[in-house]
Amino acid sequence: MKSQFSLKKNDVKTAYGMLLPNLILLSAFVVIPLIYAIYVSFYEWSFYQDNVFVGFQNFERVIKDPLFFKALWVGVKFTLIVIPVQLIAAFLFANLIRFVGGKIGGFVKTSIYVPHVISGVVASIIFIFIYDYHGGLANAVLEIFGAEPVAWLNDIKIALGSISVPAIWLGFGFTTLIMLAGLNDIPSSYYEAAEIDGANAVQKMFRITIPLLKNIFVYLLVVGVTGAIQQFDLPYMMTGGGPLNETTTPNLFIYNHFKNDPYMGYTIASALLLFVILGAISALIFRLMNSNKD
Q1: Residue environment code for 164-191, b if the CB has 16+ CB neighbours within 10 A, otherwise e
Q2: pTM of the full predicted structure?
Q3: Is 219 strand, coil or helix?
Q4: What is the rounded radius of gyration, in angstroms, for the C-alpha atoms of the chain?
């Protein structure tokens, strides 16, 4: 009995020893910077002048700033364009890859993942050339069908949709492979039993596949939604937030303030509010999807 207790005690020490490096890194790069950011948000903080305590004034300024909420709305619209298209397309394509299999399936999996390793900056440059008003591929295709060229990145109505296309392209491969991993984890015996009971393809999809992929969908939704709302490189490179701030996402809004405002309090306060909003959205997704570990 004593030896078992000693063994368990040693196991606990070993576990804490293995966790210690991660706890140190987490504290150094997450906890301490977060605490310091909260501290700075209560000051009119500057690199060049004495700091002045202002309490919640920075948060009040952010909440009263219509441009902050416009940037949030842009992030939400961007998310509503990108995530549904990405998830549906990835789900259908993952099913296709699963049934193809073999060398062709392996080649397809490798091919669709390539865009995910391309940086947003490179993707932005590629699509800037595609969307170019004079000689761009998109307008060249329109001209074939007799249509007038379109100012893809300068039209208020379609600028956000235009930068959504490379975002979908960049994340499609990763989302598809995660979906494929989830599909491969479903036992084939479930489908065989459903076929014996006379279930068709649609019934198997909605009664077996989608319910068993629930946790996969939750993961992809949380990662996708928080990533899309925080999108920075595509709007920064492709439109600079224009036209008329119609593509200014929250991160781009915060960056512009950081660049132009000599005081850091407002910038930090807006970043912290975005942090709280993203946390609330993630919690809401978990709540609505009723995720579990089964």
Answers
A1: bbbbbbbbbbbbbbbbbebbeeeeeeee
A2: 0.86
A3: helix
A4: 24
Question: Which strand (E) or helix (H) includes residue 44?
Answer: strand 43-44
Cis peptide before 243 (omega within 30 of 0): yes
For the record, the structure tokens of 225 come out as: 């939604």
Q: Which candidate, 222, 244, 213, 232, places its Cα nearest to that of 75?
A: 232
Say whether pLDDT at 153 is over 70: yes
User: 10 is written with which tokens?
Assistant: 């040693």
Output the CA angle 85-90-94, nearest 5 degrees. Answer: 160
The pLDDT of 79-97, averaged and rounded, is: 91
**What is residue 263's three-state secondary structure?**
strand
Q: In angstroms, what CA-CA distances link 171 with 93, 175, 185? A: 13, 6, 22
Q: Which tokens hold the place of 171? A: 């994340």
Amino acid sitting at position 213:
L
**Residue written as tokens 């890194």?**
25
Cβ neighbours of residue 268 closer than 8 Å, sequence gap 6 or more: 37, 40, 41, 45, 58
* Residue-level pLDDT at 147: 86
Helices (H), the chain: 2-26, 32-41, 57-64, 66-100, 102-113, 120-131, 137-144, 159-184, 188-196, 201-204, 210-212, 214-229, 233-238, 250-260, 265-289
In this structure, what is the dihedral angle of CA atoms 159, 163, 164, 166, given to the nearest 10 degrees? Answer: 150
Q: What is the mean pLDDT of residues 85-91?
A: 92
Mean pLDDT of all residues in 233-261: 90
Measured CA to CA, the distance from residue 163 to residue 235 in angstroms comes to 7
**Amino acid at residue number 227:** G
